[in-house]
Design brief:
The structure holds two protein chains of two kinds.
Chain A: H1 2-24, H2 32-56, H3 60-87, H4 95-112, H5 116-145, H6 149-175
Chain B: H1 3-27, E1 38-44, E2 47-49, E3 52-55, E4 60-65, E5 74-75, E6 90-94, E7 99-102, E8 110-115
Parallel strand pairs in B: 1-4, 3-8
Antiparallel strand pairs in B: 1-2, 4-6, 5-7, 7-8
The chains are: A mainly alpha, B alpha/beta.
Bound molecules: copper (II) ion (CU).
Copper (II) ion (CU) is lined by residues 71, 103, 105-106, 109 of chain B.
């Protein structure tokens, strides 16, 4: 009897712990102007990384990938900005976009210190990690937080491109092992 | 066979050689050589749709980019390639043989043209 009580108690404690950690990780709530800002900033950050790669890498495959990142993320920003304008939404800075920018500044510093094959590896590894994080943010934060149907649709349309970029980065990662 | 009969038959055959093709042309529709069908492959959400297509030699395939970004169509061993295909643009090719292709901008995008 005592044992089963202990177990029940433990289960309850575990449950509350799980609940706590879930509520601590609960997504920040964002308005549509804030969602638009996060979307634009997330794309700009990857263009920033691509520009560093274009300046530093000498590997044809890496350079081609960086070119694709710059081209695609620029196209996406263009469409996001055009839609925001059409909807009368002015992208608004917020905690999420600020956090993205702060993390990107740290990563850019780390990339700047590397060269040659070390740089290529660091850049491609970061592209894999960054695209995974952005896919997760778009699917689990931005899309659920968006009220406007057209903005939601645009975000949904971005996901396949992000996934193709991730697949491309992973392909290069394998080739450079 | 007398002379008149020979002349008559020759004349008939001679006339028939002109008339026959004419009659044939009027009655039987001309059986032209196969000039090919058009097929459309749509590019959307980072995929070629359909990704596999069965066609006949001489058919034409039209690729239309309905995606958010630029793509291209490049044969697997780079035997042929389109130029970068901007959003909303199309590019067509006449099929000569079975081929695997991909997008050189996004190498995870692949497709196959099967000639049957
Ligand atoms: Cu592509």
């Amino acid at each position: 009897m005592k044992n089963s009580n202990t177990l029940t108690c433990l289960a309850a404690a575990l449950t509350s712990l799980v609940c706590l950690s879930v509520s601590a990780q609960k997504n920040p709530s964002l308005t549509d102007p804030e969602v638009a800002s996060v979307a634009v900033v997330a794309n700009q950050i990857d263009i920033g990384y691509a520009e560093i790669a274009a300046a530093k890498s000498k590997n044809a495959e890496v350079l081609k990938f960086a070119e694709t990142m710059k081209r695609d993320h620029t196209a996406v920003i263009g469409q996001a900005v055009a839609l925001a304008k059409k909807l009368g939404v002015t992208p608004k800075d917020n905690a999420v976009s600020a956090k993205l920018l702060a993390d990107a500044a740290t990563t850019k510093k780390a990339l700047a210190k590397k060269s040659g094959k070390d740089f290529d590896k660091a850049y491609v590894d970061n592209e894999v990690a960054y695209h995974k994080a952005v896919i997760n943010a778009v699917e689990n934060l931005l899309i659920p937080e968006t009220d406007n149907a057209e903005l939601k649709q645009l975000l949904q349309n971005i996901v396949p491109a992000l996934k193709a970029h991730l697949g491309h980065a992973e392909m290069i990662q394998k080739n450079h092992k | 066979m007398n002379k008149i009969q020979v002349i008559l038959i020759t004349t008939i055959l001679f006339a028939a050689s002109f008339i026959f093709p004419y009659i044939q042309k009027r009655i039987v529709p001309p059986t032209k050589a196969y000039t090919g069908r058009n097929h459309t492959i749509e590019i959307k959400q980072m995929t070629f749709s359909p990704a596999n297509i069965v066609v006949k030699k001489g058919d034409r395939i039209i690729f239309v980019n309905h995606d958010m970004v630029t793509h291209d169509i490049t044969e697997a061993k780079k035997a042929w390639s389109s130029a970068p295909l901007l959003i909303g643009k199309s590019w067509s090719m006449t099929v000569t043989q079975t081929a695997a292709y991909y997008c050189s901008i996004h190498p995870v995008m692949k497709g196959k043209i099967i000639v049957k």
